[in-house]
Amino acid sequence: MSESEKQARIIYELMCSASAELSPSESYAVLSGKAVEAQAENPAFTLLREAENAVRSAFLGHSFEWLRANSSGGDGYKIALEFSRAIAVCLRLETTVLPADVLLKVVSDYRKDYSLARYFFAFEFLLPHLEKAVMSGELRAELREIHLQMAPSPTGKIQPQDKKIRDRIAELIRVEGERELEPGRGPWSQIVFDEIAGASPAAKTGWETLLEHCRSLAQPAPAAKWQRRTSELIAALGSPEVTRRLHAWLGLGPTPGRPSGARSPAEDSAYQKGVVWCLAGMRESTAAAAIADFGIACLRKVPRLGAVSQKVGLACVKSLGEMGSPESMSQLTRLRAKVKYTSARKLIEQALRRTAQKMGVSADDLEDMAAEPHGLDRSGTAAIGIGDVQATIRLEASGRATVVWQDAAQKILKAPPASVKNAFPKEVRAVGVRRKALEQALRAQKSRLESSLISAREMTVEHWRRHFIEHPLLGFLGRRLIWNFRDQRSRTELAAVWLDETLQDSKQAPVSAADFTHARLWHPLAGGEGEVARWREIIFARLIHQPFPQAFREFYQPTDGERETRQYSNRFAGVLMRQHQFASLCREREWTYRLQGPHFNGENATPKICRPGACKPSSWSICLPNGIQSCRNPRSANTPVPGSLFLSVPIRSGSIASAANSRSMKCRPSFIRRSCAMSISSPAFAR
Predict the structure, then answer these.
(1) Chain segment 543-577, per-residue pLDDT in tens
(2) What is the DSSP string of 330-369?
(3) Distance, CA of 333 to CA of 323 (rounded, Å)
């Protein structure tokens, strides 16, 4: 540690001790006023003003480290407020000249930090130092990220102070010769209007009219009048040309040419929403995939900020639901597997149920019928001839899709020959696109099928055979799973798996599906210990790679202690977990859990983990209260560790007692496991 850093730390410690004299019971406003008066009496401020530039630079270099240490809660906010004023004093002194490395470090710390330390740091006083500095590539990159973080909300709202800072940052990061966006344009709309600028005057006028019509759509869904006007404008421009351009514009993504942390500005989202509904209304065969891809890009979460464009993403979901075609239903299934936003998932469920009701089938049956075969044969392969070579897309048991290239002599090639790439560039690229789409579809169907373990979905044997044995995509999954068959007349049940082109039970005796009326996925808690062991031996001996853990699935039987207490479980008490990871996994598994804030102490609220039946029709609706406390910093008992929770008291639920005493509930005991989910890295979490 250098001498300058030692002196900076002495000033910091002196400031901490002087700040402790402020009463912790005083309000923030009173405390703020007293801090101003205390500056004249606090010797730390005097030392800071009289210190050399190197000491002040070292003090600022550690600013975020010290702010984070004192802004997490408890009494630390008194020190943080005092320290915030000290930072402002340093930055406003004319004699303060920050070295390039310190300036870069402070800007980088500000960009990375999302705690209260960022609130306490007076960034506006740092801007004059940035204006004097030589703008290096690293510094410009950091400022670009901050410029994105301070962007207006999707509705265009921004605080006046943030707008002032953002405008000054925009001037700093501007590169000479770089084209600026036109007024009222975002990155996406600028590209679109630049493209139509080269059209003939009549066509240009038609396109501008259509785009302004798209921009006028303010409602979540278009009215009949808006749709009629859309049809007229499209007819004037020509449906094939409109289809081609709309596909190309959605293919740009919501934020073309922008960093991954950028969100779609209000100038773009207004146009994008209307374009999505225009394409959906044309009922074109490939429109559903284009809209779904755009919706996934819009609903991608930008860390700490939210979706890229939630308004446009939800419009994509609604438009797919309104299309009501098998292609759109298939894309909604893919969206549900990819999107984690609760509002979007609810819209997807509503769209599927609404379409299913119109067709007189269940939502699950509708999704089965909407599953595309993707040109696969029964073994899960699709051959595509391009010139004198052949590309074979093959589904792997691991869930991946691979491409194998072969020449006319059936010799395997590492890649398509250069002559084929040059002669058929679009066809070669289409193979990669098709492989990716197939992989995504397989992942979505696997997730949907696994969720039926909880929903206890049952189907007719005819439906099971048609979709989970004979279907090229669903059959690739269904033939490797264990199914429970039930005869509605005799009330007999038997578990079987598809082996050697026939059904076999756990003793490898043949089973006739015609003897049963209904089928559902088998759960290990539905069978005895002997049956589970036999199934595991078969899966292991036959080298069957199941799509998700089934025979070897984790489950937790109630212990004798849990049967005795009936109302609570101590099984996972005292376990440390990170609640953001926990909340993310809850959303993925369709459970509901609300994050606890920094002032949560385990006594002022009762966190709950719920799986309401309203989210997805199922056989049970569960809400499990958890006894949880926030973790405390070992250096300060009053300071919580951000994002961490400590399961310090028993998990309580009336459901556990009924699960412990009723074998008929089958997979209910695993709710004990799912309610706490401490081993959050486990693939069986929340199942």
Answers:
(1) 999 999 999 988 777 788 888 877 777 777 777 77
(2) HHHHHHHHH---HHHHHHHHHHHHHHHHHHTS-HHHHHHH
(3) 14
Closest C-alpha among 556, 532, 588, 562 to residue 673: 556
From residue 273, alpha-carbon distances to 7, 258, 580 in Å are: 57, 19, 31
Pairing state between β 482-486 and 510-511? unpaired
For the segment 376-385, the average pLDDT, to the nearest whole number, is 92
Compute CA 601 distance to the chain's CA centroid, rounded to the nearest angstrom: 28
Q: What distance in Å separates the CA atoms of residue 61 and residue 90, rounded to the nearest whole number?
A: 11
- Of 225-234, 331-340, 453-462, 596-605, the one with minimum mean pLDDT is 596-605
SS3 414: coil
Cβ-defined contacts of 194-198 (< 8 Å, 24+): 195/245
Q: How far apart are CA 591 and CA 580, in angstroms?
A: 14
Residues 687, 673: Cα–Cα separation, whole Å: 9
Q: How many CB atoms lie within 10 A of CB 467?
A: 19
Residue 373: which of 408, 341, 327 has the closest Cα?
327
pTM of the model: 0.69
Two structure tokens written together for 512: 């006739």
Spatial separation of the C-alpha atoms in residues 687 and 523, rounded to whole Å: 10
CB burial readout 312-332, b (16+ within 10 A) else e: bbbbbbbbbbbbeeebbbbbb
Core vs surface per residue 536-546: b (16+ CB within 10 A) or e: eebbeeeebeb
> In this structure, what token pair is assigned to residue 614?
């309203």
CA proximity to 477, closest of 436, 518, 449: 449
Q: Cα dist. 222→98, 214, 231, 247, 280 in Å?
A: 55, 10, 12, 20, 11
CA atoms within 13 A on the CB side of 95: 9
What six digits make up the tokens of 418?
Answer: 């250069």
Q: Give CA–CA dist 441/217, Å, rounded.
A: 32
